[in-house]
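TL;DR need structure tokens for one chain.
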Amino acid sequence: MMSHSERFCITFNGEIYNYLEIRQELELKEYRFKSSSDTEILLAAFEEWGHQCLAKLRGMFAFAIWDRQAQSLFLARDRFGEKPLFYWHDDQTFYFASELKGLLPLLPEQPELNPAAIDLYFHYQYVPEPITPLKNVYKLPAAHTLTVTPKDWIIAPTCYWSLEDIPPVEGNPSQLIREQLETSINLTLRSDVPIGLALSGGIDSSAIAALAARNYRDTLQAFSIGYEGRPEYDERSQAQSLAQSLDLPFHEIELSTQGLVDFFPELVAAVDEPIADIAVYGHYSVMKLAHSQGIKVMLSGLGGDELFWGYPWVTHAAKINQLIYFLSQQPAWGMQGLRQLQKLVQHPLYQRLGYSSKVPSSVQSYVQPSLSFSRANLSDSSQTVFYELTPEFTEALNYRERLYPSTTQNLPENNPYCPFQTKLDQRLDIPNQICQALYQTWLVSNCLSLGDRVSMACSVETRLPLLDKGLAEVVIGLRKTQPDHHLPPKAWFKTTIADILPDEVMNRPKRGFQPPTQVWMTAIINHYLEALQNGYLVSSSVLDGGMIKVMVNEFRETGKHIFMLYKAVVLEIWYRQIVASVSLKSNLVS
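>> reply
TL;DR here they are.
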């Protein structure tokens, strides 16, 4: 779209939820609009305020604006990274797109895989931005802008928003969070098409449903998924019960293992990047179900766990980093003392005290919080201790020396730690730095990436009320005056919504769309093993063929290596579908 002055031209992916408020502000400045489009309003906002217009936007977006007068290109991505923006450049050309599938055909040649990125993939199950699996292909990071001008050709993304820069907030958490939560939901419900809700049995989607149903009961519909045999973690019944209590139409679909296996290549292609999160099939299926009912916009509870300490290991990371910093500053401790303490925690007897059912719970309550300290990387007191606290990450560390051929063994020793290797700034709040690290890795590169791609593959737009600028700034601001990481998981959020949800929902264990992980991964591995053993990754020495053969044999005999083999299968299929553009419908056999 061209601006009224014809100076600026925009291409835009996303939604500006508060576009009406921005329009009113611009109309007071005598702007006149030809349409009701948020694109026209975004373009006018940029013409009026330049880069500063980003401070006014509440929504999800990736956009590029060409300034014909200054001969400059301005690109921006939303604060949390809900919408993607890939780019590639050399010394003469700059290409950008919303998908790898859109970017790669533009490039002068097929890019090679990046060994360091592949190593990260096997540790994280995704490639943390801003890098991608491909050499010289990047993502503009969330909450960043990039200005490109032909005269200087400097490609240097700039951050415009971070949790660390949010000012402190005083007040009652329940009241302030509730106000922002209701505002966010009302903004994300603005639509001229029917809206649905991805509903599980958890409190995040349940709270959104309860608040949204107050004003939109006549048009809102709920969608959920389940699994064969209705296992314990199948939450259809709980979701349906809540939907009925809110008088919302309820739709469900049961997913089968065979259905996933048959559809798997198309599913991997839809995700666009290699993301080995088995829950992706559930996210895709609920969006496909919504599309079949004529729904174009879906609300989701994604983001609640990241904002409100929903993951225990993240809380542990915050506490451990605080402890390490405190002890490292004590004259009697220092780093040497910390390493000695770690050896004590690593002792088998100490480990048994934490895990044995014979040990009184009163003793375990003191021992267990420190067990994760045994896996901390204590190379530097200011180094963030984070993903080494998760079993999947530490499992992958054990494969590094054998998984890749000797020709690629020149990877940096600390490569797996690079995405969260920023030094902790002790002048800032450590828990919020940990939250920022979670946002910059797991949330944006796994959850938001797969969520956006599978919904768009079904022609459905996903909106996330819990990832709102106003809500996040209130929560983080309150956290800077009233630390909450020592409270039970999601304590503030539960207090905020206690009046709208029954106790059975509030006290239910967290699951989300939890799938039959082992069954699904095993079925996929069995079906696509030949594609892996005889595929690109082995033949091109990305992975060591001998090690893959050992892992396959042990998998068949004992069921070992499931997650690592699953990640390898996903990567192989992704490469064929997205990079090499080879259809797997005819040449992948069990």
